[in-house]
Amino acid sequence: MALSLGQKAGWGLADMGVVVFVVVKQLLVLTYLTAYLGVPVGIAGFVTTVVLVFDMITDPLVGYLSDRTQSRFGRRAPWMFFGVLVMSLGMVGLFSVPAGLGMGANLAWVVAFFVVATIGFTMVAIPYGAQSGEITQDPKERSAMTGFRMAFASIGILIGGAVIPGLAGSMGYAMAALLVTPLMIGAVWLSLWSIRKAPRVEQAAQVNLTGMFALVFANKAFVVLVLLYGVMTLAIAMITAGLPFAALYLIIDSGDTLLSGAATALTTLSLMFAAFVVGSILSQAVWVLLSHRLGKVGALVLGLSLYVVLLYALYTMLPSVNVTVIAGMFVLAGMTNGAYQQIPWAIYPDLMDITRRDSGVAIEGAFSAVWLFGQKLANAVAPAVLGLTLAAAGWQEATGGVVPQSAEALHALQMAITLIPAGILIVAILGLVMIYRPMAGRALA
Fold first, then answer.
1. How many CB atoms are closer than 10 A to CB 296?
2. How many angstroms separate the CA atoms of 154 and 276, rounded?
C-alpha cells in the first residue's frame, strides 16, 4: 500500500523535535561548559565524549526491546511517545545548573542530566529509524520520506542552533530550552498520530539478542555503510562543535571593533545557522531528484565532493570581518550538507530488505541501533578531538566572554572546522566508490 503525502510528511515531522536535541548536544554543551561554567576545554571535551559513549551502549538494548515489543499501537510508538518526554526533561535540566557550585559539582550536574537526555533520545531515535524500514519497502518512497524528514530536521537545526542560542543570550539557556520543549514533544506525538494507519509489523520478533545482531552483522554492505556514515559524521560533528568558537573568534562583523562577549557572539552564531538551514531546506528536493537520476550513491558522492570544495574555500576566507559573505558560504554549506543529511538515511532501509528477504525476520530496531552506532561514535569522539586539538595549541577557556587567543590556537581552530573535516570527507568518498558501491550492487542484485 502506497503511503499518502500526509503520511510521508508526517513521518518526517518527528525529526524536527529530535534534531533540536542533537544540535544542542553537538553545538552547545561543550561551549556551555567552557564558556559559562569555566571548565577547561580538554576536561569538557572528555566528559562530553564519555556521556555520548554511554549513549551508544543503550542503543542495542532499545533496538532489541523495540523489536520485541507488542502493543495495540505497534512496536515503535510507545517508545517514542515516552522517550521524547525523558529527552526534553534532561535537556532542560542540564542547562539548569544552580549558581555557586564548584567545577566538580557543575560537571556532576551536567553529566547527570545529559545522561537522562541521551537515554530519552535513544528511546525516540532507534524506533524512529526502524519505522523507515517498516512502513514501506519502496526505495523511491523512502527517498521522498527522507526528503521530508530532512526538511523538518533543518527546521530543528535552526531551532537548536539559532533560536535556542539567541534566546539563551537574553534569558539564559535553561529558559530557552524550556520554551522549545512543547515543540519537541508535539512534533513527535503529531508524527505518531499521522502514521497511525500506515503499514507496520504487529508481531514481535522472536529472535534473541545474539541472533538479532548476528543477522545484522551478516549484512556486509550495511556494516560498511555504517562505518562510512560514521566517517562522514565525524567531519560534520567537528564543524558543528567548532562553530560556536568560530563565531567568537573567526567571524567578526566589520561594523564592530570586537564581539564583546558570548551573548553578542550568539547573534553571529544564530545568523550562521539560519543561513545553513536555508541552504539545507532549499536542497532537499534537489537531492531527492538527483538520487533518482544518478542513483543514491552517485548523488551522495557528488554532494560530499562539493562539500570538500566549499570547506577549502571557507578555509581561505577565515578569519573574516564580513559576516554577510560568510553567511552566504553557509547557505552553500547547507546545500551540500543536504546530501549527507538525506541520502544515507534513504539508503540504509534498502539494505534492511536484504536481511528480511533472506531470513524472513523483521528486525528493523536492531538495524536502527547499529546504524546510529557510527553516527553516535563520531559525535562522541568529535568534541574530544576538537578539545584536545585546541588544548594542544594553547586554547584558553573563558567564563562568559572572549579572551585573547594565540595565533597558533586560532589557526588550529580554523583547520579544525575546514581542512581537517574536508580530509575526512575525502576518505568517506573513496570508501563509497571503491568499497561500498560494488558490495551493495552484488547484495541488492
1. 24
2. 9
* Number of compact structural domains in the chain: 1
Residue 251 β-bridge partners = 320
How far apart CA 51 and CA 62 sit, in angstroms, is 17
For residue 320, the SS3 value is: strand
State whether the Cα torsion 40-43-46-47 is positive or negative: negative
The contacts of residue 254 (CB under 8 Å, 6+ apart) are 321, 322, 323
Phi–psi pair at 251, nearest 5 degrees:
-120, 100
pLDDT digits 0-9 by tens, 278-317: 888 889 889 999 999 999 999 999 999 999 999 999 999 9
Strand partners, 320: 251
Coil, helix or strand at residue 251: strand
For residue 163, what are the contacts with CB-CB under 8 A and spacing of at least 6?
176, 180, 270
pLDDT in tens, 342-394: 999 989 888 988 888 888 887 888 888 889 877 878 877 887 888 888 888 88
The H or E element that residue 19 is part of is: helix 5-23
Cis peptide before 344 (omega within 30 of 0): no
pTM of the model: 0.78
CA distance 415 to 385: 12
Print the domain residue range for 255. Answer: 5-198+206-444
Q: Given CA atoms 366, 369, 372, 378 in this order, what sign does their dihedral have?
A: negative
DSSP 136: -
Which among 31, 51, 54 is positioned nearest to 108, based on CA atoms?
51
CATH of the domain at 330: 1.20.1250.20
Distance, in Å, from the CA atom of 246 to the CA atom of 410, rounded to the nearest integer, reads 9
CA distances, 425 to each of 59, 229, 332 (Å): 25, 10, 16
Q: Residue 435 has which C-alpha cell? A: 568499497
> Using one digit for the tens of pLDDT, what is the confidence trace for 147-195?
898 889 888 877 877 677 777 777 888 888 898 899 999 999 999 999 9
Give which of 64, 68, 71, 120 is closest to 94, Cα–Cα.
120
